[in-house]
Amino acid sequence: MKKIIACAVLCLPLFAHADTETDAACQANLAKWMKALHPGRQLDTEHALCKVWPADPSLTLAVQPLPQAGVNDDGGVYDLEVLVADSQSGALVAHFYQPSAITSDAIRFSSIDLDTARYQLTPQLRAFGVRVTYEGSSRVNPYGAQVLSLYVLDGHAVRRVLGDMVVSSNSGEWDDNCAGSFSTVARTLAVGPANASGYATLKVGETSKDSVSKKTRSDCKTTESAPKRTSTMLNYSGSAYNVPKAMKYE
Fold it and tell me: Could you give the CA distance from residue 154 to residue 145 in angstroms, rounded to a whole number?
């Protein structure tokens, strides 16, 4: 047992070194892909990222925000590249370009992440996600949201099959002291059985909750409503899953 523990401890630096090498290769490839796809354009290096796909480690996923002219600390518009590359060579396999995909203004684009949960849409196609997080800049009107899009590698093309669905949001209005009202919404996405299209149905589970805060003589009292739970089924329409307007980030 002691030998096993000692081996595990000794191996830790090797794994850390491997992760460091992977990260360094990823950063180098981000610049290489940018130069190949958009020579002369600027890359938002703060938010660009890549990740080996757990479902197929021979492939690496990447997302690259490209600021349009005029982007500054006050905001602006970003184009987006979502791409798949060969993990060993870094060679591009396929990519999907979205002009004006992200707008950052009073509602600020704060972060982006790759979602590699098990979104098995057909026996052959497994989707991966891109999650974009937004934050409001107003203290008395707080707002935050996370938005999910799903993509598949279909042959030699990347396709977006689910676009800009809000998976979490919080909003409110208060007097910067106590009195105010607030709302939160959280959504989960589960993969269901295939329908006539051959693609899995997607079950969206939603939980919403409201709260009201009021000033009392000696304290600030918050009253929360009972959570409301609903579910919605999304079906593949032939090219994508249609997101209801109430769930879509616009």
Answer: 29
